[in-house]
Amino acid sequence: CGICGKTFKRSWELLSHEVVHNEERPFRCHLCPASFKRHSDFKSHGLVHSEERPFPCQLCGKTF
Question: What CA–CA distance (Å, rounded) separates 58 from 53?
Answer without folding.
Answer: 14
